[in-house]
Automatic annotation (TrEMBL):
The lineage of its organism: Eukaryota, Sar, Stramenopiles, Oomycota, Peronosporomycetes. Residues 213-225 have a biased composition (Low complexity). It comes from the Eukaryota. Residues 22-34 have a biased composition (Polar residues). This is Uncharacterized protein. Residues 1-37, 213-239, 345-367 are annotated as: Disordered. Keywords: Coiled coil. It comes from Phytophthora sojae (strain P6497). Signal peptide: none annotated. The keyword Nucleotide-binding does not apply.
């Protein structure tokens, strides 16, 4: 029995020898024989082309399997980065060959399944990476809010300590004033007691001097007024010197007290200026920190928008690929229907009964050209195999279509999740901005109120500074309000 690999020259050599033994009356069979030879050549050419295509398809499958194995190994080694080099060195060529054979058996001649598996693996990896990044961003936001709360608590404690310090300073000043007042009262009482003692001594000494002087002196002394007698008391040099010494001492103490009070006033003014500078620097630091946070949140929002756009573009690409697969599957179905119709036309009907001449000529033609009959039989078997392969490919394409539908549903669910996460992040951003702005405004108001109270208690004679502080607080509130409006406008855009 001859095979399909036998050259066409043998056909041209053997056919005349056998054709010479046949009578010349069978010219009809000769024409069919020549047409069969042309068909045989055409089928041989198609067979060679199909073999070349099969070899190319096998090389393509091998390359796809190698690429699939490399991607899987690299993705696994990225997860286990410590054992990357050792795992690549330890894997032998035999093990890789076995794995390659397993993947080829798993693909079953369909490289599209390998591509689908690779795409699914990469999407899962990307989704896992995005989930990790989103979790890290959420942790960063939580840590930022916690740090902000700690800073606010620290500021509140600092303000409470400042208020307590001011209260203690006021108490100290009141105690110093009270102590100075008590000392002054004690000195005044001591001076009064000394004066009373001197007056009593002068009054006791006065009658003795009158008795010694005699009657004339007593008469003249009795004729004098009481005011003149009182003037004699202050006219004594020792008494006047004592009183002058006490007055100088009292004036010296009063001057020292006034100097101490002036020094304390200057110290309070210096502390007030230092406190105002610290508050202004704190406000500037808070404003700069809020600007940095708003800039960072804008960057996060832009990043989320970019990711959402990339996911939408990926979804559109997937839809385009799915449409291409559907068109390709429709083309394959049309090709299968065309081949099936051609095979059905080539098959003889069951009710067909050849004529006597045909039945008489059939054994002779079969005996004359057995390789042609064998070729047609093999061609029919090949067409049946092709039809079975096409049926299998159609089933696989239908399965891949179902898989693509599932992937489309998964991508839609991922898109909805991303949209929800974006909305949640926008709401968190607006809430954080609103909270920080309200905290800054409340702190500014508390600072303004505390400044007003301290100024009222300590310095009632400085209305111009209070007015400037009010104007500055109003300016800062207006500035924060404008920044809040601009941030809200940006978020709505």
């Amino acid at each position: 029995m001859r095979t399909l690999d036998s050259p066409a020259v043998e056909v041209s050599v053997d056919s005349p020898e056998r054709h010479d033994s046949i009578p010349s009356s069978t010219s009809n069979n000769g024409s069919t024989f020549h047409s069969g030879l042309g068909e045989t050549k055409h089928l041989m050419e198609r067979l060679n082309t199909a073999q070349v295509k099969v070899k190319r398809l096998q090389r393509l499958e091998a390359a796809l399997v190698d690429f699939f194995m490399e991607v899987m190994d690299r993705s696994d080694n990225n997860v286990r980065a410590d054992h990357a080099t050792r795992s690549l060195e330890a894997e032998s060529a035999f093990v890789r060959g076995k794995r390659k054979e397993q993947f080829l058996k798993k693909a079953e001649g369909d490289p599209i399944s390998l591509l689908n598996a690779l795409r699914t693996h990469l999407r899962l990896k990307f989704a896992e990476q995005e989930a990790q990044e989103a979790a890290a961003e959420r942790r960063f936001l939580v840590e930022t809010l916690t740090n902000q709360q700690k800073e606010q608590d620290t500021r509140d404690k600092f303000q409470q300590l400042e208020l307590s310090c001011c209260q203690l300073k006021e108490q100290r000043q009141s105690l110093m004033h009270q102590m100075n007042r008590n000392e002054q009262q004690e000195e005044i009482t001591a001076l009064k007691e000394a004066r009373d003692a001197l007056i009593k001594a002068a009054q006791i000494q006065k009658p003795l001097d009158g008795v010694r002087a005699g009657g004339v002196t007593s008469a003249s002394a009795s004729g004098t007024s009481p005011s003149h007698s009182n003037g004699e008391f202050f006219g004594t040099p020792a008494e006047n010197q004592t009183l002058r010494r006490a007055i100088r001492k009292y004036e010296l103490k009063m001057a020292q007290t006034e100097a101490v009070n002036e020094e304390r006033k200057r110290e309070v003014q210096r502390l007030q200026q230092q406190l105002t500078g610290l508050r202004q620097s704190t406000q500037l630091q808070m404003y700069s920190r809020l600007e940095k946070e708003s800039r960072h949140l804008r960057e996060l929002a832009d990043d989320l928008k970019k990711r959402l756009a990339e996911s939408e573009a990926d979804l559109l690409r997937t839809k385009g690929t799915l449409k291409e697969r559907e068109t390709h599957m429709q083309k394959m179905r049309d090709e299968y229907a065309r081949l099936f119709n051609a095979v059905q036309k080539q098959k003889q009907p069951t009710h067909y009964s050849p004529s006597k001449l045909g039945r008489a000529a059939t054994p002779t033609s079969n005996s004359e050209h057995p390789y042609v009959v064998e070729h047609y039989r093999s061609e029919a078997a090949r067409v049946e195999r092709e039809s079975e392969a096409l049926k299998l490919q159609i089933r696989r394409m239908m399965a891949s279509e179902q898989l693509h539908k599932q992937k489309t549903r998964v991508l839609r669910a991922e898109k909805q999740n991303l949209i929800r996460e974006r909305d949640q992040l926008r709401a968190d951003l607006d809430r954080a901005k609103r909270h920080s702005t309200l905290q800054s405004i409340a702190m500014n108001r508390q600072q303004a109120q505390s400044t007003k109270e301290i100024r009222k208690m300590g310095f009632t004679s400085i209305p111009q500074d209070v007015k400037q502080l009010k104007e500055r607080n109003a300016f800062l509130e207006e500035r924060f309000r404008k920044s809040l409006q601009s941030n809200s406008a940006l978020t709505t855009i």
